[in-house]
Automatic annotation (TrEMBL):
<keyword id="KW-0597">Phosphoprotein</keyword>
<feature type="domain" description="Response regulatory">
    <location>
        <begin position="7"/>
        <end position="121"/>
    </location>
</feature>
<feature type="modified residue" description="4-aspartylphosphate">
    <location>
        <position position="57"/>
    </location>
</feature>
<dbReference type="InterPro" id="IPR011006">
    <property type="entry name" value="CheY-like_superfamily"/>
</dbReference>
<dbReference type="InterPro" id="IPR036388">
    <property type="entry name" value="WH-like_DNA-bd_sf"/>
</dbReference>
<dbReference type="InterPro" id="IPR001789">
    <property type="entry name" value="Sig_transdc_resp-reg_receiver"/>
</dbReference>
<dbReference type="InterPro" id="IPR005561">
    <property type="entry name" value="ANTAR"/>
</dbReference>
<dbReference type="InterPro" id="IPR008327">
    <property type="entry name" value="Sig_transdc_resp-reg_antiterm"/>
</dbReference>
<feature type="domain" description="ANTAR">
    <location>
        <begin position="127"/>
        <end position="188"/>
    </location>
</feature>
<dbReference type="Pfam" id="PF03861">
    <property type="entry name" value="ANTAR"/>
</dbReference>
<dbReference type="Pfam" id="PF00072">
    <property type="entry name" value="Response_reg"/>
</dbReference>
<protein>
    <submittedName>
        <fullName>ANTAR domain-containing response regulator</fullName>
    </submittedName>
</protein>
Amino acid sequence: MKSHTIAVLVIDENRIRASIIEAGLHEAGYGNVTIVHDINGIARKISEINPDVIVIDLENPNRDMLENMFQLSRAVKRPIAMFVDRSDEASIEAAVDAGVSAYIVDGLKQERVRPILKMAISRFNAFARLNRELEETRGELENRKVIDRAKGLLMKSRGISEEEAYALMRKTAMNQNRKIIDIAQSLVTAIGLLDPGENA
């Protein structure tokens, strides 16, 4: 994605600091920049603006403000770069847990905005890719469990081998133009309804 097409939202109650970030973004070629100075109702504003990247600048954040911003980070699922003037280890860990892509302590300088934003975007994309792969792997494992369960049920009810049970499900799936997992799930559900003891 080219920088001039990326919509950036800057959340900063301090207008002077916001202008530093805005200048750094414009200098880096980010033309679509929206500044919000009031954090009240920020979740609604984010959904209205629908930015690609969010930059949050908290001059002297208290714990409640940080926690609110971390909850926001978990909810919006976008790259977030957060600038704070000071921090502690617990806040840094909380920022990572919340999915903040770049958490910068005492580093608000115009020339640093561009590399920090690029890092936030690439880190967010890397985490998103890992999460997708993890979900796919989890889904495959769950599917395998269901298919194995269905094979076991067929083997028991029909007195056939594992290979024959799988071949039967595959043939049924092809005949019905469905996936094997759908056939397996239907079989497990049906047996569970007919014989509740089987699902115990």
